[in-house]
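Handout, tutorial session.
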Amino acid sequence: MQGWRRRVVYVATFEILGILIAATTLHLLSGAGAMKSGLMSLMITTTGMTVNFLYNLGFEAWERRQRERTRTLARRVGHAIGFQVVLVSFLIPLIAWWLDVSLWQAFLYDAALIVFFPIFTFFYNWAFDAIFGLPDAVTAGSAPAPARQGA
């Protein structure tokens, strides 16, 4: 599976699992009601899906320009950490606003997710690649693709 279809399946599956985890965690940590926690997790999921899609689009574009196109352990770890840093920069203000708490309190609420999701992302990506194969950006050869003329 390649291209847009791969990205949509990747993001949708990742976020379905993520929303279940986030809703339960926020409810337990914040003491907010199920409705408020559920809506918060929906906002987190929407933000997560958008960031996830754009981050992976950018990551694969970067990967295509690399001389070495294998997904090594270091590259997978870097991918997971980079994604989490970008995502958290959006989530902390969102949680603070929605739950009407300080940024520090929102960070504390998000701490369990901050620890869990890079690990989840790492293993999810590995399993996704094992099930669906690597994207063309990685398997198309070991040298960067030549630049297009006039494009």
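The second record follows below. Compare its token runs with those of the first.
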Amino acid sequence: MQRTMNWIPIEQELPEIDQIVWLYNANTYIPWIGGRAEDDSGDDIVWYWGNTYGSFWHNGVYWSGDIEIDQFYQPTHWMPLPELPAKEEA
């Protein structure tokens, strides 16, 4: 199934926790690859936006990566990463 590649406003829909996606801040015009991540180190579970800094991969089913979370990442839009090309039969 091919998914339309359009930017989704954060206030309209959020990506799943730990889903690696394209993120974009319309105020700074900066795109990056990252996602939402949970921080359960305190009494309450909170989530932050994060950046993968290029450390992401496809595990055969979905995109995955090590996300560095920070309260300063403030995306306004997101978009799913594309599927990998299909393997060619020999």
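Points raised in discussion: The mean pLDDT is 86.
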